[in-house]
Amino acid sequence: MLRILQITDTHISPTKPHFASNWAPVAALARAIAPDLVVHTGDVTVDGADMVEDLAHCRWLMDGLELPWAAVPGNHDVGSENPEHFQAVNDLRISRWEAHFGPDRWLRDAGPWRLIGLNAMLMGSGHPREAEQADWAGEVLAEADATGRPVALFLHKPLFLNDPDEDDRGYWSVPGRARGRYVEAIRRGTVKLVASGHLHTARIFRRDGTVFAFGASSGFIVDKLAPADIPGEKRLGATLHLLDEKGTVESRLLSPEGLDTYVIDDVAHEVYPPRS
Ligand SMILES: [Fe+2]
Ligand SMILES: [Fe+2]
Predict the structure, then answer these.
(1) pLDDT for 182-194, tens place per residue?
(2) Calcineurin-like phosphoesterase domain: which residues (predicted)?
């Protein structure tokens, strides 16, 4: 049995400590569980996309867990997939992420399982690394097919909110044009778990034999600043994934004691002031 603790959307910065008090409870939970791997599914930082100090500080926090860990970047860590956004994903931002957190995409084989981390912020960006990542993902997913390895995918944005064929949801999920390869692998039965963050809601659902986990943030919830139809429960937490030798997945929402339910709406003007 492989035990993976997913944490996400911590949004921590040494200069904007609005949500920092929630790190200790989630770190204590991680140490108590002592999983085989901690995976952070992005928005580790408040603003690692522009503040290298945020990346350095959060790397130090992750190492302080004294547990094996891996991370994939979020929009606040490496920028947005939208080239018009003031913080578009680019080579400099990715290189700074990689200097602190390692490759923005990764593969770990653990027992029968293949764990794949993806940089969701490239998806739909048109950056040359988007195609490189898609080719690489195609190869490692095909290898998993050929060898019968069940796959768990970790990425910041959900591939979709409710349905793989739904219309694009802009900021909230991976654009339809960029999700096809992953949806195909899900439909082939290769991918057994898709674990994402970004929405700041908690939701675990099963669809055609694949578990989709919208990981609970341990930073803050989003009240009126999110569209009313974003699915999931507005609560903080962490997610434990149990992956067994037969390729079955059980995912559970955990509620570490001592988390403060911060609401971004209350402090957005300080943490993420509007930019022109
Ligand atoms: Fe976030
Ligand atoms: Fe995000």
Answers:
(1) 999 999 999 999 9
(2) 2-201
